[in-house]
């Protein structure tokens, strides 16, 4: 008999992917323009012009043996140095090249990090709503995921609940800001409070707890007053897991990194654990072509003004129609309160109007749906009558 846990994971898609596949079938039946698919967080704006220019330059002028060859297991040194220099310039992060490990996107970053940190039976805390795959990643590493609810109004972490959830087996805390699915950005006050609570717990118990920040949406904030705190400035035992999928609109290229805070006392051991976990999982030597690409364009972003336009359009219209909306500061998701207690039933009714909305149950929260507004603005405009009809069906 083969591993039945993996058989089950292979047979049952995530709720998001299941809805996406349903959408593809429905579009084939009635036409793509008649289906309003808000299921998948797939960037809808092109990569910056510099990406195409740099790829052309690399392919046309670089030694092909180098460009398509292996790098060091943890990534090309010059790439890691360029990323560290950029993070230091923007955030005062205190990093160097030997703090970074290049990866195949944020999922690989998280899997490597968790496998480096936890031993069988450890616990990993995260804050609901959270990306559903955290459960899969933690379980594979041998840990139990412990969700802690957020404040029901602000969707900032519930600090008292967090302090109560810390226990003898807690090894790591995953935060995700800007958040998927709510779009909420954790404030500097929140990050400082989390770090203080962790420090008090460590002092009281003698157990190390690592703050792991999942940051694929870090650059996707829409207002100049909104700042995403860089966690190495607030917590010594901190690790950043990053992907260029959203900031550069490169989700299919699978390129990102892990940044380990050198301020932690056991930095060398943790970084060695990262290297070892990457080795044991087969995540060594991220694609060199895209390592060299991000070296040249790190710090740049796609034109996210489109997402801001989409956010404002949806927030305004849905609020007018009577929906309760969590106004997002970043990412490209809208968290909307379902018009009945059961989010799945609400999402099923939305399908009657060809609206594909992800119910919140798999995100660890009841009674909401996620709308991915990384779509064509015209589709949003065409979908608004359907949202109105859906709301009116409940008022009737």
CATH homology superfamily of the largest domain? Type I PLP-dependent aspartate aminotransferase-like (Major domain)
- Residue stretches low in confidence (pLDDT < 50, at least 5 long) are none
Please give the number of β-strands.
13
Helix content: 40-55%
Care to describe what's here?
By secondary structure, the protein is α/β, with parallel strands linked by helices. The protein folds into two domains: 4-48 and 303-395, Alpha-Beta Complex (Aspartate Aminotransferase, domain 1), CATH 3.90.1150; 70-297, Type I PLP-dependent aspartate aminotransferase-like (Major domain) (Aspartate Aminotransferase, domain 2), CATH 3.40.640.10. Helices cover 43% and strands 14% of the residues. The strands form three sheets. It has a seven-stranded mixed beta sheet with strand order 2-8-7-6-5-3-4, with helices on both faces. Helix 6 packs across helix 10 (267-281). The radius of gyration is 21 Å and the shape is globular. The N and C termini lie far apart (54 Å). The relative contact order is 0.17. The model has no long low-confidence stretch (mean pLDDT 96).
